[in-house]
Fold:
Amino acid sequence: MLLVLFTWFYLFFTLITLGFGLVKITALKPNHFFIHFLLGLVTTTILATIWAIFGRINWEFHIFLIVVQAAVFLFSKEEIKALYSTILKSFYSLSNKTKGFLIVVLLLTLAQSAKASYFVDNETYYVQTIKWLTEFGLVKGLGNLHIFLGQTSGWHILQSVFSFSFFGNCYNDLNGFCLVMATFCSVCFWDSISKKQERHFLVLAIFPIANLALFPFLGSPSPDFAVYMISFFVFYYFLENFKSTSVSDFNLIFILSSFIVFVKITALPILLLPLLLWMLHFKKLASKVLGSYLFGLLVLCLFGIKNAILTGYPFFPSNIVTFDFAYTLPKEVYQFSFNPAKQYDFFISSQEFRKLEPLAIVFKWIFDSKIYSVFNSLLLVLLIGIPIYLKQFLNERKYWMLYLVMMVQCLFLLATSPQYRFFLNYELFFGLVVLAHFIPTRIGILKMSYWSLLPLFFLVLFSQKIKSNFQDNLTFKETTFLFRSMLFPAENSQLKTHFHQTITGNIRYYSPDSSTYIWATGNGKLPCVSDTQIKYLKNKTGYIPQLRTGLLKDGFYSQKSNTP
Structure:
């Protein structure tokens, strides 16, 4: 915990300073320090992505970041000092009870972040994605080795910066720090609750209750967490600026929305929010938001370049455009991995998908997918119940527009990958909108927030892992919250397996035990891929991964196998 806290101090000063730099470049006028923090996430990710195109994200990049921060500080010394002074004043102005609440959240978040992570995605590709980034950067054709690695997220690029791999591979705590900062931002609004009673303002103040849902995502570099947290504030600013907006606020909403899509392409419909504002205030915005157009173009280019390097498909996982590189993922491998049945196979088999009618698939998705059923059912309740609630209690156009975007998100995911975690941000926000109806007062919100700490204690001290459909195939190391965690964070992988060296063609790789889940790689040495996976894909597609040259940094391609 102490070492994690130490890294968080570095994150704080780095992100606030770089966020300030982006504010100066884009001429934004943020009304809260938290915006500087969010823009710091954006700035660091953009810089790291450009850097990763040419080389590894390691200690060299931190030297570059320090130089950039020094330049920002030298050019705007007094303004940056004033910004940090404002942040300190915001903390000292809080009541003692509120300070105590924030400190408890900090300690619980530190403890949760220092614990072992049991996310399946962490063991299949999160750890390996960050490892490749810190040792080599973006590697050509990496998706040929393990197709999940072709899904490298902007959030993984950002986490690779703050994984501090030169100190050991155990720092995956960016999500925890973001949650603390978001909670800090929220409690700063508590004293203003009695002065401003608009529902979206109350939802922002009640955000700490959402920690109950967000806590399980700490300790691993889950991009889903980033989507939940940042979109929460995008929703707030969309509602705040719906009737009347400024160029600065529109640019902020667009930048954050574009960043969310760069982090997770499944969140693509969120771009409808700035589009709606642009259409509603066309005369005011159309000719004055050149910065947004340029930023959108930059993000689009980086997204395309990143994916083209990793897979040969600039809009991966879509194959709408394909570059004919020597290392481009073969269409046979792509089609096998992304056929419609595969998009649903986390809860039904390919055979069932081909036999069942669409309506039957939807019913199985809702009621027969283990833990997913709870969240899927909640989504169904919201889809049906929110219009009734809005019509009765909150019949405002802006909320209907947000609900419409939620519907588009649902349809988008039903056509691609209908997993509950891809629309949990909408469930959380609208859930808190309804909750704020019943506790609209400052005292009510404070009491609810204080009581929410109790289940967080249980999550930190007693929970071991969140059971999913896949974890029957994985064996995790048996660990609990230990006193050792007070100083040192847990390892970034908890996969219980042994790695053995295997050779296929010209590639020598490290494979987990054959009994391990087929897509799992854990924290194996590079290159790491399951021998079972290679044999499986060879049987299904006829291809095996091979080195392009004798060096890992030069990447991989898929070779047609001549043997059965």
